[in-house]
What does this fold into?
Amino acid sequence: LVLGNLLNLKFDLVNFGKISYRKFEVKKINGVGQTKDGIDLYSKTDFLGMHKAGMLAAQILDEIGEFVYPGQSTEKIDEIIEDKVKQTGAKSATIGYRGYKHASCISVNHVVCHGIPSDKKLKDGDILNIDVTVIYEGWYGDTSRMFVAGSLNRKAERLIQVTHDALFKGIEAVKPGSTFGDIGYAIQEFVEKNRMSVVRDFCGHGLGRVFHAPPNVLHYGRPGTGAQLEEGMFFTIEPMVNLGRPETKLLSDGWTAVTRDKALSAQFEHSVGVTSQGCEIFTLSPKNIFHPTY
It folds into this structure.
C-alpha cells in the first residue's frame, strides 16, 4: 500500500488517510537496530518472517486473476480476497486501518492508488491495480500488481510493461552503499525515457512488524542523494506511472487518488529486504505470474 509523500511535510500528511507526520516519526524501533536516519534494521531470522508474509500476499494475487473479467465488480473481487486472506490464517492489514473497510485497494484505469472497491462493473479493456497487505505471525506482506479485464489495447499494454520494468530497474539499484536517490533515479530515468511520467505525490515505505515506517521510498530523484542503504532494511518499491502528466487529485472520499488529466495510470509493488550483496524480494509470485500477460 502506497504512502503519501512525506517529503518536506512537518506535521500533516495529505493524500493518505490524514496521518500525522509527527506520529509517523515516533513509531517504536523494531528489529535489531536503527540507522542514523531512523530506519529500522532487521536480522536474518526476520527475513524468514517477511518471506512468509510476502508469499501469502503474492499467493492471493496469483489466485485472484481468474475473477477479473468484464462484468465483475471490484467489490466482489475484494470479498474473494478477504475470504482468501482468512483461509491462509493471516489477517488483513487494511480492514480497520484508519477507518478503511476493505481487504484490498483496487484502482481502475485513471485511478492512481487507494481505489475503494465498489459495485461498479468492470468493462472490457479496463486495467486495474490490486493492492493487498496481510499480517502473518506479526509480519506485514505488502504487494500489488496489474490485472486486465478482457482485451488489452496497445497504449495500456505499453504502460503496464513500462511500469513493470521500472519497478525492476529500481530493485536492481538496491544494495548496501547505494542511496534511495539511486532507486528513484533509476525508475524516473527509465519511465521518462519512455515518454511517461512518475507520480510524485505517493511513495513506497518501510515496513516489517509495522505497516508504514521510515524511509519514504521516492520513485524519482538524483543519484547519490537520500539515506544510504544498509543490510537489514525492509521497504516497498511501488512506482505509479502515468501515460500523461504526473499530477494527481484526491477525491472527496479521502482515499481515492486519480490522475488530474484522467490519463491511464499503472502500478506494481514489491516488498524487499537489503542483503549484503543486493536484496531479496519477499513478494515474488509463487506461480511466476506477476506480469498480467504471463
In short: The longest strand covers residues 127-136. Helices lie at 21-25, 44-64, 74-87, 154-172, 180-193.
